[in-house]
């Protein structure tokens, strides 16, 4: 394996910056450097050397086909750094993102801007977005369309539900769009199908913006032609790719799995079902995997069994016709075929759940509150993901959180099947932000934090006290992140009783609404858990404190336990610590989002200074100045304190004085720990 560690060879990227792009007279510097094309079109353009280095490696990896793993810190400008070189090179590309938010930013903002700038410079290109079929109106379901969407669905040119006049709820979207019931080329509406036309457009576009889920489907089913065979693939937010691959290879049956079929078949006469099934029930039913007395109709259990045995008793076409006639479809065979397809997919999942567990997977089946729930998940998808760089001439993995330490990509590469790549470049770019000046990292060593492993109740009390002190010091503008819902609820209740500022918590409103509230509300304090550790962008004075209760070690469920068992005795250091490190980096990244931001990141877990692995975790975080006393935090905020505003007097003044006078840790111990981190 050829491994080029570009972080250790700064002269190489500098040379690349002046290297003309393949098939073009432009260099990366001509596009992104001072006075370059982008600078000419953006008022107040900020030249970012890190962005130029990343773009140079992307361009080099296209000109000399290779795989590149690039960690680009917050503020680097990853999108332009990978889009501009691809476009100017003349190569077509797949760009995979983790979610619709980033997808929307690329197709709604970044690509139209580059289309104008680079198009005017003589480098025109086309682009489109590639979504799954569940995002497009299904013409075969016309009779089931919700009334409030019917007029729009009849007239829409694209069929994309994101363009609908209102956001459909999950049930409405299932009624509007295809899913497991899609019959593809067998559908009589296939020629007019919105999803089919959208798929054809992908082959005509130079840049196809998709998501990780679609990319993983293509990897799992290489002959499915989900995505066109473009030579370049960019995987943005690459730290999430493994999770999507695991989800794509999992088999799940839950109460939600039965809602659609149950609704469709609840009106069917049991005699008809029994006749088709010839009165037979398999061992799957009698053994309790499918129980007729669970929370779905008895008829569904029979229908499931019918379809499991349909291939043995009669041809598929004959079965579909019988189903249409008996169910009262008035010989609408296409609708019957769609329903049969939905049922077949459910039956296949149940079949997989009942079969022996494949090697490298974990299986768990349970009855929860009378409902059937089961899942088979592969805990190692590295072999599947290893197909990705093999499918493309150039593959670029990028994110703000890929490395577990200085130039340490080993965990990401092992989990994502990159280790065996024959030509591989890695590049770790810091953020252009001045963390030493803009940010403090507060580790409360002076305050005798209890150990969460040995004294959980005491630790939770210490966390609530520290959160209160920090929110007081910052005067709100705080995002408080927790590793459990119980801890979040308890802290939110305590802060509402003891804090002068408005406090809200996750679950009280939709995620987007809470983020908007944090941006707009002076002195706001927001308590949240897992989903707020990334994807929250609140620049400016609205967010000046991010406090994290403890190291986010993942609770060991069946999948995690299976992975740990496979990893052997060093599973904690091989799996748990790297995962927690990356998660902490994501949480840390919520604070500094621009050159003018200032604030404090507080991590309240004493294991960061009491355990050996804690030192490595801290070293992997951005290079902020470490402080250990709340007085240093207060002094930092005083340096850039905003204009004073009137707030209501805080209650429990006596308790506050007591909390402020909490005895610090032994001074010699504290000084020794501080030296360790400096």
Give an overview of the whole structure:
The protein has 678 residues and is an alpha/beta fold. It folds into 4 domains: 2-21 and 30-126 and 232-245 and 381-429, 3-Layer(aba) Sandwich (Rossmann fold), CATH 3.40.50; 133-193, no CATH class; 252-376, no CATH class; 435-677, Rossmann fold. It is 45% helix and 13% strand. It has an 8-stranded parallel sheet with strand order 1-11-2-10-6-3-5-4. It has a 7-stranded parallel sheet with strand order 14-15-13-16-17-12-18. Strand 14 (503-505), helix 24 and strand 15 form a beta-alpha-beta unit. Helix 4 (49-63) packs parallel to helix 5 (78-89), helix 16 packs across helix 17 and helix 25 (558-567) packs across helix 26 (571-588). The longest helix has 22 residues, at 333-354. The model is unreliable at 1-14, 265-333 and 644-678 (pLDDT under 50).
Q: Brief description of this entry?
A:
With 678 residues, this protein is an alpha/beta fold. It contains 31 helices and 18 strands. It has 4 domains: 2-21 and 30-126 and 232-245 and 381-429, P-loop containing nucleotide triphosphate hydrolases (Rossmann fold, 3-Layer(aba) Sandwich), CATH 3.40.50; 133-193, no CATH class; 252-376, no CATH class; 435-677, P-loop containing nucleotide triphosphate hydrolases (Rossmann fold, 3-Layer(aba) Sandwich).
């Amino acid at each position: 394996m050829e491994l080029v560690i570009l972080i250790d060879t700064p002269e190489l990227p500098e040379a690349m910056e002046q290297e003309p792009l393949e098939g073009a007279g432009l260099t990366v510097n001509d596009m992104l450097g001072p006075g370059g094309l982008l600078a000419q079109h953006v008022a107040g353009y900020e030249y970012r050397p890190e962005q130029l280095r990343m773009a140079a490696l992307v361009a080099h990896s296209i000109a000399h086909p290779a795989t590149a793993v690039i960690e680009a810190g917050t503020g680097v400008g990853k999108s332009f750094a990978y889009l501009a070189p691809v476009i100017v090179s003349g190569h077509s590309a797949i760009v995979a993102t983790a979610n619709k938010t980033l997808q929307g930013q690329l197709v709604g903002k970044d690509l139209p801007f580059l289309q104008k700038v680079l198009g005017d410079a003589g480098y025109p290109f086309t682009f489109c977005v590639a979504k799954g079929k569940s995002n497009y109106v299904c013409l075969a379901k016309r009779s089931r369309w919700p009334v409030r969407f019917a007029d729009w669905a009849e007239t829409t040119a694209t069929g994309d539900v994101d363009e609908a006049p209102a956001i459909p709820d999950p049930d409405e979207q299932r009624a509007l769009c295809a899913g497991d019931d899609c019959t593809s080329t067998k559908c009589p509406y296939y020629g007019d199908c919105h999803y089919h036309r959208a798929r054809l457009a992908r082959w005509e576009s130079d840049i196809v913006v998709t998501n990780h889920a679609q990319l993983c489907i293509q990897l799992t089913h290489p002959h499915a032609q989900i995505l066109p065979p473009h030579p370049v693939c960019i995987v943005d937010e690459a730290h999430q790719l493994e999770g999507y691959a695991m989800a794509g290879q999992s088999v799940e049956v839950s109460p939600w799995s039965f809602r659609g079929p149950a609704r469709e078949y609840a009106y069917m006469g049991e005699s008809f079902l029994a006749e088709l099934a010839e009165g037979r029930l398999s061992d799957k039913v009698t053994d309790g995997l499918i129980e007729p007395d669970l929370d779905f109709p008895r008829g569904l259990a029979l229908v499931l069994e019918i379809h499991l045995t349909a291939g043995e008793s009669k041809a598929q076409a004959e079965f579909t016709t019988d189903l249409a006639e008996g169910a009262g479809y008035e010989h609408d065979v296409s609708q019957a075929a769609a329903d049969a397809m939905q049922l077949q997919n459910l039956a296949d999942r149940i079949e997989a759940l009942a079969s022996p567990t494949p090697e490298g997977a974990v299986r768990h089946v349970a009855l929860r509150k009378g409902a059937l729930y089961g899942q088979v998940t592969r805990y190692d998808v590295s072999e599947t993901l290893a197909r990705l760089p093999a499918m493309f001439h150039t593959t670029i993995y990028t994110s703000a959180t890929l490395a577990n330490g200085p130039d340490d990509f080993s965990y990401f590469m092992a989990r994502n099947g990159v280790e065996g790549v024959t030509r591989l470049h890695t590049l770790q770019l810091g953020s252009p932000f001045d963390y030493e000046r803009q940010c403090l990292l507060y580790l409360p060593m002076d305050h005798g934090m209890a150990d969460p492993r040995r004294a959980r109740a005491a630790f939770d009390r210490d966390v609530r006290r520290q959160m209160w002190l920090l929110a007081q010091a910052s005067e709100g503008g705080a995002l408080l992140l927790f590793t459990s819902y119980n801890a979040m609820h308890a802290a939110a209740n305590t802060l509402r009783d003891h804090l002068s500022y408005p406090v809200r918590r996750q679950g009280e409103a939709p995620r987007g609404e809470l983020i908007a509230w944090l941006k707009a509300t002076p002195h706001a304090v927001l308590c949240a858990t897992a989903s707020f550790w990334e994807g929250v962008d609140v620049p400016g004075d609205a967010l000046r404190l991010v406090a994290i209760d403890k190291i986010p070690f993942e609770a060991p469920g069946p999948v995690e336990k299976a992975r740990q068992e496979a990893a052997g005795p060093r599973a904690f250091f091989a799996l748990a610590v790297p995962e927690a490190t990356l998660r902490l980096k994501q949480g840390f990244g919520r604070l500094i989002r621009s050159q003018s931001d200032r604030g404090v990141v507080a991590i309240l877990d004493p294991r960061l200074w009491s355990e050996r692995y804690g030192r490595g975790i801290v070293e992997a975080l951005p290079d902020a100045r470490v402080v250990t006393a709340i007085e240093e935090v207060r002094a930092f905020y005083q340096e850039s304190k905003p204009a004073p505003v009137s707030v209501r007097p805080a209650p429990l003044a006596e308790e506050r004085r007591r909390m402020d006078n909490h005895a610090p840790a032994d001074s010699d111990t504290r000084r020794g720990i501080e030296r360790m981190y400096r």
